[in-house]
Amino acid sequence: MASKNKFLFAIIGVVAVVVFWIYWVSVSSSADNPTLVRYLSIEELKDQNQTSRVKLGGIVKDGSIVISDSDLLDVTFLLEQGGETLPVRYYGTRPDLFKDGVEVILEGRYEDGIFIADQLQTKCASRYEGDLREENNSQSGEL
Question: For the stretch 67-90, what's the b/e string if a residue is b when 16 or more beta carbons lie within 10 angstroms of its beta carbon?
């Protein structure tokens, strides 16, 4: 009977730690570094004039990428999404796949009509998916 009680107390302890951790992560976010970031469309961002930290997704408009001559980490471009465009400024190392027409996910703030991104991710190009499918099919046929 004692081993059943120990097991029950261990389960209750693990559940209590998990609940406390979820509460702590939810409450401990500050205005400068929130743990939960809303994902908005460009239209929602402009309509709500959202000034808190948000995520955006879209496609880099062809021919819009401008890299600063004085600082190669400073880049501006236009983000397209559903007929809407938004100027974006990003300072930092860009992913290798960052180029015109690529789909990106940004995180940052909307200030004075410009989205100031501090995180930039490119989505995996679909051209690689076909190569992987062909490779998997050829390997499965050899088995």
Answer: eeeeeeeebebbbbbeeeebebbb
